[in-house]
Write a structure and sequence with these properties.
Blueprint: E1 7-15, E2 19-26, E3 31-38, H1 45-61, E4 69-75, E5 78-84, E6 89-90, H2 91-95, H3 98-105, H4 107-126, E7 139-141, E8 148-150, H5 195-209, H6 219-228, H7 234-237, H8 243-252, H9 264-281, H10 308-322, H11 328-331, E9 338-343, H12 350-354, H13 358-363, E10 367-372, H14 383-396, H15 401-415, H16 419-425, H17 430-433, H18 444-460, E11 469-474, H19 481-491, E12 499-505, H20 515-533, E13 546-550, H21 556-566
Parallel strand pairs: 9-12, 9-13, 10-11, 11-12
Antiparallel strand pairs: 1-2, 2-3, 3-5, 4-5, 6-7, 7-8
Helix pairs in contact: 4-5, 4-9, 5-8, 8-9, 19-20
């Protein structure tokens, strides 16, 4: 047990990967307190900053339904947040206690807890704070006073909207079993206060049924469930749960924020109707949901309008790469990799279209990486490709030790004695494969050829049936000559399988003699020559190595629909 001046530590009540929580007494006034401290002996500056931010958000909220933060104190080389202790325990801890579980999981008590949680959440959102980690461990309930408080603002944000990025599920912010689809970073949607409604729905689901909507230990599969699978409705899990209550939970857990409740007031109104019916008649009859659900936020819908055909083309191409068709083409040496070009003016939505692939990529357990060329850095070879693979390596470094060992073996086999060549451009690779021997110096052309060969082997190591690879290169009109040559080699390499290369470019900035257009023409000629040489009859309507999507401005009806949905 630790010793902190001015405090008597009574017991440890919680421990996570990042923090330890104790119950204690402040000695100057015998006030019961909770002490939350960082677990690491030497926390990083980023962790310290994060902790200070948690304290400031909690202290400034100053709401009856939010645990109060008394002070932030230094302890050895870390920080301790001193918090209010009102005698409650987390719902997670109480549901694990057989004596307390029945009191919490009675329908009457569940509805009371749900109403309290919703009212508190309304106040938090009114203060422009998004909690981002609503779950039973962060809802503290006093079994005698029946009072509920929300705790743990460690990953909360004071922004009204965030744009999550695609990350390895192992490092996602939030508790994975309760996380909203958009918070996974794989929905091509920004994140706002409605992410808390989804997590609230999962919490209610667990309180009512005694189980989670998605029960799997595989992190990526769990992410896919959140973004694509509809859970079994609570009233189907337990017939004693009224359908009206079940429908409220399912509405909270809708996959897109637009389909959920739009206000905490709307949620509370429907829950209160259920509780009133239960207390007056003993039954809860069906009634229309959301009649009082009026949002006080101006929300622009985040779905793509007028791009249905383009999305279908893109997803079909990816599925073709992830599951190559059995055809003479696949056996004839043209490889299973494909390239999709997305052309259009600046700002027309090329990147937004490509990000619609997040969901099918997650389903296929694939990797998505991206890089962007800069018109002022065209003298830096492979800049966008190197950036993209740096992101992929960072994803790999968050894998388990067992998986990391498998990747080490795979990369060492692919790179052989040339590992240092990749480390020179992507230093993080050394953290996976270890120190490598120096390679002999070569002349300009020979060194370039060797680099392309080694980089090709490196890329192929990530392309497999288990993990198809999608590389998105934006602003391809500014690509350097070395990158264009690499693209040509990848798209004409018969050994490259399960690779989907997407290139976006501004078609108004390229001419038929532009290096990009000439490279693409060379790829088409090479593939055409290979197929002719092997006497393959290829139906170009069903399979081509290079496909293209041209994005035009939206039609009037699409803009009208967008405005109608918004207003």
């Amino acid at each position: 047990m630790i010793e902190i001046n001015g405090y008597e530590i009574l017991t440890q009540i919680y421990e996570s990967d990042n923090s330890i929580v104790y119950r204690g007494i402040r000695q100057q006034d015998n006030l019961p307190v909770i002490l939350k401290m960082l677990k690491q002996d030497y926390p990083t500056p980023a962790q310290i900053t994060h902790y200070r931010q948690e304290y400031e958000i909690t202290r400034n909220l100053n709401l009856e339904g939010v645990i109060k933060a008394y002070s932030l104190e230094e302890y050895q080389r870390t920080l301790v947040i001193i918090l209010e202790d009102f005698g409650g325990n987390s719902l997670k801890r109480l549901t694990n206690n057989s004596e307390q579980k029945q009191a919490i999981t009675s329908l009457n008590q569940c509805l009371d807890i749900a109403i309290q949680a919703t009212e508190i959440l309304a106040q938090i959102h009114a203060a422009n704070v998004i909690h981002k980690d609503i779950n039973p461990a962060n809802l503290v309930w006093h079994s005698e006073t029946k009072q509920l408080k929300i705790i743990d603002f460690g990953i909360s944000t004071q922004f009204t909207r965030e744009n999550p990025t695609l990350k390895n599920p192992n490092v996602l912010e939030g508790t994975l079993a309760y996380i909203s689809p958009e918070q996974t970073g794989r929905m091509n949607r920004s994140l706002d206060y409605r992410t808390d409604f989804y997590s609230l729905g999962v919490t209610f689901y667990e309180l009512l049924t005694g189980k989670l909507p998605f029960e799997t230990n595989d992190a990526l599969e769990l992410v896919h469930c959140h973004i694509a699978k509809v859970p079994v409705a609570p009233h189907q899990v337990n017939p004693e749960i009224p359908k009206a209550v079940s429908d409220i939970v399912m509405k909270l857990m809708a996959k897109t924020a637009e389909q959920r409740y739009q206000s905490a007031f709307g949620i509370r109104n429907d829950l209160a109707e259920c509780l009133q019916q239960l207390q007056t008649t003993g039954n809860i009859l069906d009634f229309p949901l959301g009649t009082q659900d009026i949002s006080d936020h101006f929300q622009i819908p985040q779905k793509l309008y007028g791009r249905e055909a383009e999305i279908e083309t893109l997803i079909t191409a990816f599925e073709r790469v992830a599951n190559p068709p059995e055809s003479p083409l696949a056996k004839g040496g043209l490889g299973g990799g494909e390239m999709m070009l997305v052309a259009g003016y600046s700002g027309i939505g090329k990147s937004a279209l490509v990000q619609e692939l997040y969901q099918p990529i997650t389903k296929a357990r694939g990797y998505f990486i991206s890089g962007k060329f800069d018109q002022f850095q065209r003298n830096i070879p492979y800049s966008a490709v190197v950036y993209a693979f740096q992101e992929l390596v960072r994803q790999l470094l968050t894998e388990t030790a067992t998986k990391l060992k498998l990747w080490r073996e795979k990369l060492l086999t692919a790179l052989g004695v040339n590992g240092q060549i990749i480390i020179d451009v992507i230093p993080q690779v050394e953290l996976i494969i270890g120190k490598q021997i120096k390679v002999p110096q070569l002349g300009g052309t020979e060194a370039q050829n060797r680099f392309n060969l080694v980089l090709g082997n490196f890329i192929r190591a990530f392309c497999s049936p288990e993990h198809p690879l999608v590389i998105f290169l934006d602003d391809l009109q500014w690509a350097d000559a070395a990158t264009l040559k690499l693209i040509q080699l990848m798209m004409t390499d018969s050994d490259t399988q399960y690779l989907f290369l997407i290139g976006a470019y501004r078609d108004n900035e390229v001419s038929p003699t532009h290096p990009l257009m000439m490279t693409l023409e060379d790829i088409k000629k090479a593939n055409s020559a290979t197929s002719s040489l092997q006497n393959l009859e290829i139906d170009q309507l069903t399979f081509t190595k290079i496909n293209q999507i041209n994005l035009a401005p939206l039609a009037v009806e699409h803009i009208s629909q967008h405005m109608a949905d918004t207003l």
